[in-house]
Amino acid sequence: MSLALRNEIDITVWLAGGSIADVAILPRSRPPVMRLFAGRPASSVLSALPRLFSLCLVAQQVAYLSAAEAARGEGATVKTVQRRVTAIVAERLTELVRGLFVGRLALDGTSAAAVRAVMQAATVLGGVASEGDRGVAMREAVSQIRSALTELGILREIQSPEPGRAPAATRLTSFDGGPLSLPTIEQSFLSAADDLDVVGRLLIEGASFSGAPELHGRIPETGVWARRAGREQIVPLDSGPAERLKARVAEVARLFAWLDGAEGDLEDGVIASYSLGTRRGAAAVECARGRLYHAIELDDEDRIVRFELLAPTEWNFHARGPLVQSLKGSLLGAGPRGQDAVRTLVGSFDPCVGFSLNFHEVGRA
Asked: What is the 3-class SS of the chain, one letter each residue?
């Protein structure tokens, strides 16, 4: 069995005149690779994760370690938890910056160098398994990220990059004036309050749940937009591409402020672990894409009996999920700006996963 996962999602938007009549999503191909670990020592899985996951690897490692500890009835030390949270924050910041400035926005030389600097510095902060005093290296890494974010125009938690300093400012301006008018829908968000329900379903239903998750009729959104709604305790009325990009910029600034010691609190449940009975445990990690879940059952010799995983992408790109609900019934502006706005909206749901986007007129397929 090949261990390769096809991470790209195929999205087809059906147009009827100037509106979106329907949206079809072909999900990622995800072989049941977790079953390959059955019978293997739990300690052997961590080294295999880099070969399986190219997206949010630090989050995957932390989720696995935390779930295995919960299954054994163990608890991580305060210092270990702090090191893991720092690694998660560094990876999240890096993925959000990369998603903002690579691929969907034009990169000039200065921006490309700044993005590379953030990615290099984050590797210093992202060592989940590393021990010892890393104080000097971490301070240098934070200083490097500060300089890079300054070059990109993201200096503090603001709703827009500084005009003239970041390519995102020009991009955001292009969405003013409504090239994409979204319908009013009831938004639902995944949070730490859903964790026990999710991991319970994950262990009972396995792949049938993780492939198309649903909570009692809800298919909630997870990620930057959900974190903003939870932090501000309100549901923003405008959930268009420009507002979502601004929310991502603001989160990058908040994450850096936390790394720099200027921000005391992150949102609840960055890492949460749960003991689920004899030799069963689970963990949830708030990564760039949203809430990631691992659930594990071990035998008495610490071998894997069952290992289940639910990625944030499966909520956001569910065939009846938040993206589809947001787009259906939308009105598009004339010309390429409308389709470009749709592309940006799709990308705003997940800064990491690749996707193809095609438009067809109803009746002309």
From this structure: CCCCCECCEEEEEEEECCEEEEEEEECCECCCHHHHHCCCEHHHHHHHHHHHCCCCHHHHHHHHHHHHHHHHCCCCCHHHHHHHHHHHHHHHHHHHHHHHHCCCCCCCHHHHHHHHHHHHHHHHHCCCCCCCCCHHHHHHHHHHHHHHHHHHCCCCCCCCCCCCCCHHHHHHHHCCCCCEECCCCCCCECCHHHHHHHHHHHHHHCHHHHCCCCECCECCECCHHHHHHHHHCCCCCCCCHHHHHHHHHHHHHHHHHHHCCCCCCCCCCCEEEEECCCCEEEEEEEECCEEEEEEEEECCCCEEEEEEEECCHHHHCCCCCHHHHHHCCCEECCCHHHHHHHHHHHHHCCCCCCEEEEEEECCCC
